[in-house]
Specification:
This protein is of the alpha+beta class. It has helices spanning 7-24, 28-33, 39-47, 66-79, 81-100, 103-114, 229-265, 277-305, 311-336, 338-341, 347-357, 364-376, and strands at 122-123, 139-143, 146-157, 164-170, 180-186, 192-197, 207-218, 222-223, 267-268, 271-272. The longest helix is centred in the middle third of the chain and has 37 residues, at 229-265. The protein binds glutaryl-coenzyme A. Glutaryl-coenzyme A binds next to helix 5, helix 7 and helix 12.
């Protein structure tokens, strides 16, 4: 086992750290407070090649790999978690098209997604279908050379601003999960309405609802065969979950850094508060959870780079990193006291943003189900 990062990976990590600190950091508090969508940053991240890590050069990517993608995502999330969501919104659709799309779809959509020119999103969740993806109700009915989509997708990152979307819809209800199909669609066509939604955190990442009313999608925009959508969706989630786990790791690190820095300067009862064992207990746990999450995220990415199945490892990494982020942000807030609770300092943002990781891309409970059912031999995670 080699725990060293190659020079290439260190360079990617340093580039992302520098970019995050200089270009994202200075306005992070303002962007969060004002719920600003930073399309300029989506483009800049594209120009720097951040979305191209897992895309070959033939489609405009750089092929640096999944570990590079994880390292970059961690650096961005450490500075502002909302900005790492863009990584998934651009890369998730591009990667799914790369794996399952026709040559025409790949050529049409992958380059603008990874250059950050077409703002992407993916639409799985519905009002009555969250963890239970197979329960989705949005329909896609074939009519000549197009499909008519009807239904509603909710809690979709980028819904208010996206130019294009990876959409999952039911083409044959009688087939249950085997009757779901995947589509790539231009959202600037008639039949799409959007509603912005607000949430506890991740404010600079626009969230919303997409409603389709006789939204026409050309039949050539179907990804894979009819009925393959559920498997495509499970495959896609395995990729986006990994990047999400790397984001949680970034938040865990940011919260720990804030706690350590404060504990080293704040004095109470005649000494630095870092001298108190109750503070040390929290800091030790933050360090342990973060380091464990880092090794698990890197392992899952390393497996992907070797072309090996990693669903189980991704779920373990996502669960551990999400819980590490929530623990670290909660702990940092307690250590900083009023300064943690205050909206003038970033720790309360870390806490709000950390909670999202226990819900998105498969909740912590869903990850535990995947992990436990694999251990019990009920359902293999890697297949
Ligand atoms: O036997 P079969 O041929 O019918 O196939 C079954 C199974 O083998 C079928 O699907 C297959 N399958 C898979 N195939 C390949 C299942 N999992 C996989 C896989 N990983 N790879 C049905 O399988 P099943 O086990 O009966 O399915 P289920 O019980 O209906 O669902 C499984 C599960 C609960 C894990 C799934 O529904 C799930 O992952 N739910 C969580 C949904 C989720 O993650 N949503 C995320 C929404 S998007 C989002 O949060 C955006 C955030 C953006 C950001 O911040 O990054």
């Amino acid at each position: 086992m080699d725990f060293d990062l190659s020079d290439e990976l260190v360079a990617a990590q340093e580039l992302a750290r520098d970019f995050a600190e200089k270009e994202i950091g200075p306005t992070a508090a303002k962007d969060d407070k004002e719920h600003t969508f930073r399309r300029d940053l989506v483009s800049k991240m594209g120009e720097l090649g951040f979305y191209g890590c897992v895309i070959p050069e033939s489609y405009g990517g750089n092929g640096l790999g999944f570990l590079a993608l994880a390292l970059i995502t961690e650096e961005i999330a450490r500075v502002h978690s909302a900005m790492r969501v863009f990584m998934n919104m651009q890369v998730g659709p591009a990667l799914t098209l790369l794996r399952f799309g026709s040559e025409e779809l790949k050529k049409r959509w992958i380059p603008p997604l990874i250059r950050g020119e077409s703002v992407g999103c993916f639409a799985i969740t519905e009002p009555d279908a969250g963890s239970d993806v197979a329960a989705m109700r949005t329909t896609a009915v074939r009519d000549g050379d197009s499909y008519a989509l009807n239904g509603s997708k909710i809690w979709i990152s980028n819904a208010p601003v996206a130019d294009s979307a990876l959409i999952y819809a039911v083409t044959d209800r009688s087939q249950k999960h085997r009757g779901i199909s995947a589509f790539y669609a231009d959202l600037h066509q008639p039949g799409v309405s959007r509603r912005a939604l607000d949430a506890l955190g991740v404010h600079a990442s626009p969230l919303g609802e997409l409603t389709f009313e006789n939204f026409r999608v050309p039949a050539g925009n179907r990804i894979g065969n009819e009925g393959e959508g559920f498997k495509i969706c499970m495959w896609q989630l395995n990729q986006t979950r990994l990047s999400c786990a790397a984001g949680a790791l970034g938040v865990a690190r940011a919260a720990k850094e804030a706690a350590v820095s404060y504990a080293n300067q704040r004095e109470q009862f005649g000494q630095k508060i870092g001298q108190f064992q109750m503070i040390q207990d929290v800091i030790a746990q933050m360090v342990v959870h973060e380091e464990a999450a880092r090794l698990l995220v890197y392992r899952a990415a390393w497996l992907a780079d070797r072309g090996q199945p990693n669903n189980l490892e991704v779920s373990i990494a996502k669960y551990t990193a999400a819980e590490a982020a929530a623990y670290a942000a909660d702990g940092a807030l307690k250590i900083l006291g009023a300064y943690g609770y205050s909206t003038e300092f970033p720790v309360e943002r870390y806490l709000r943003d950390s909670k999202s990781y226990q819900i998105v891309e498969g909740s912590s409970n869903i990850q535990k189900i995947i992990i436990a059912q694999d251990a019990l031999g009920y359902r293999k995670a890697n297949r």
